[in-house]
Amino acid sequence: MSIGEPAAGGAWWQAAVIYQIYPRSFQDTNGDGIGDIPGIISRLDHLVELGVDAIWLSPIFPSPMADFGYDISDYTAIHPLFGDLGDFDLLLAEAHARGLKVLLDLVPNHTSDRHPWFRESRSSRRSDKRDWYIWRDPAAQGGPPNNWLSEFGGSAWAYDEPTGQYYYHAFLAAQPDLNWRNPQVRAAIYEVMRFWMQRGVDGFRVDVIWHLMKDDRFRDNPLNPDYREGDPEPHRLVPLYTTDLPEVHQVIEEMRSVVEEFEDRLLIGEIYLPLEKLVAYYGRDLRGVHLPFNFSLLLVNWHAPTIARLIEDYEALLPRGGWPNWVLGNHDRPRVAGRVGEDQARIAAMLLLTLRGTPTIYYGDELGMPQVPIPPERVHDPVERNMPGKGLSRDGARTPMQWDGGRFAGFSEVEPWLPLAADHASRNVANMREDTGSILNLHRRLIALRRRHPALTTGSYHPVHARDDLLLFARHSGGERFLVALNLGRDPVSLGFREPLRGTVILSCFADRDGEAVRGSIDLAGDDGLVIELEPESAMPAASF
Ligand code: NOJ
Fold first, then answer.
1. Which phi and psi (to 5°) does residue 372 adopt?
2. Which one, of 81, 71, 62, lies nearest residue 417 by Cα?
3. Positions of the region Disordered (predicted)?
4. Helices H / strands E in the chain, number of each
5. Residues flanking ligand 1, CB < 6 Å
6. What secondary structure does DSSP assign to 208-273, as a single string?
């Protein structure tokens, strides 16, 4: 069985590795304990050394920071915390000069309640911009218009005393949802996109794109029969009428057309949906987003047969010509090293960087940065503040990047906005670059290998074996054949093949087996993984599940 043919045309983002920067936590240069754009510029060479092709910046726009930048009060300027438009233009120039693309976070679903559009909208029922947001009268018996819940806890409706109506907010009350049924809203956001693309931005990651449209009849969401006491409150309901509406695909097609007014730009959608629904976001005739973010590795049980099944399901569901992608970490989910354990973080990296499709790396995961416990007095995340003690805090995955052994890890001269991980004195870029077997160098070697061998980027995918802790798959392109062998457990494993398997280890997790000949069997230490190049005369092991 073989899945996936190299896509025709070969857009830049198909062979690319994307790297997400959370700007508050990347590099501080002005001594306020918060990262900034000059800081990102000063660290671009790390990214070049790592070998990534594109950076995506979480929001850098003016914002009251109720949701750390995902509450925007001006779409076409830079928050003074991070710098100004001059700094941003310099970042673009410096990144482009190094061959790095720059992607911005587009947050079209909602603005800040301080955005002039919302201020105007709430000023009067007769305001020209009243319909730019979602306003409803109270229910007949009083109270919110329906049962819709906010993702961040409580009702999704906030009452506006002076005008006597409620407005809808899928997230915080400080993040009112725009009304995407209003053509003026669409036009205004498309202008924002053009503004940044004219400046040279290479594309967007679109925040909560599957939320853009809501039911125009405002029907109650049904109760979720799977809800268990103690689950996060928003899970009480199935978001049938608030997300993933069929109409959303029409506006995404429009966004895609805007992106295509410019050359070679990329549109990524943030979408948390089961795979069979996710793939609809490639759109009719692939007119949707280029990459609907595939978050399944963020959520999967770390178990070889489960992962093998997931990869196959995803590959099988992809529409013809739809390009796959994989995400291992982001600013909303616990760090991969926290999820799968520090020892498995290398295996996770090898998986991410050898699967078919575009990988996205979250800053700091190249060091295996841990999920950091945050003491109550240093909690910033509104999700933790609104729904405390449910393990939902996102702060622990947003801690400062660990650059060197300095007091504040080279991130800042002062105490950073969030605590540093306890291991920053040893787990940092300066230290780990010197250690051939470090997880940082593993990332560099894997990315370099992908770059050298089309089989690992655009080559087809072949499942080989998944049992107990062992996961094996192959990647082919032209005459090149690679076998990837991953041990997802801590005990050594050995697998013999009946066919005459012949190859050479070209990359091993700890850089200690490179060049080793493989003859008929594969032996792996606990938490180890290999990329094996098969000789032309070698048999291809048959799939056995
Ligand atoms: C998704 C973003 O990734 C998350 O950080 C944010 O809180 C919500 N969207 C609301 O914008």
1. -95, 130
2. 81
3. 378-397
4. 15, 19
5. 67, 70, 107, 171, 207-208, 270, 331-332
6. TGGGS---TT-PPPPB-TT--TTS-GGGGB--TTTSS-TTHHHHHHHHHHHHTTSTT-EEEE---S
pTM (2 d.p.): 0.97
From 28, 151, 207, 312, active-site residue: 207
pLDDT in tens, 74-123: 999 999 999 999 999 999 999 999 999 999 999 999 999 999 999 999 99
Instruction: Tell me which residue of 220, 212, 216, 210 sits closest to 155, measured CA to CA.
Output: 220
What are 104's two structure tokens? 């911005």
Mutate which of 57, 58, 63, 67 for ligand 1? The one with the most ligand atoms within 8 Å of its CB, which is 67
Residue having the nearest C-alpha atom to atom 8 of ligand 1: 70
Domains, in order of start, for the chain: 16-111+183-447 (3.20.20.80), 116-168 (3.90.400.10), 461-534 (2.60.40.1180)
CA of 70 to the centre of ligand 1 (A): 6
Judge whether 261 counts as a catalytic residue: yes
Q: What is the pLDDT of residues 139-178, one digit of tens each?
A: 999 999 999 999 999 999 999 999 999 999 999 999 999 9
Measure the CA–CA gap between 423 and 433, rounded to whole angstroms.
16
What's the gap between Cα 160 and its chain centre? 34
469 is catalytic: no
Angle subtended at Cα 139 by Cα 134 and Cα 143, rounded to the nearest 5 degrees: 90
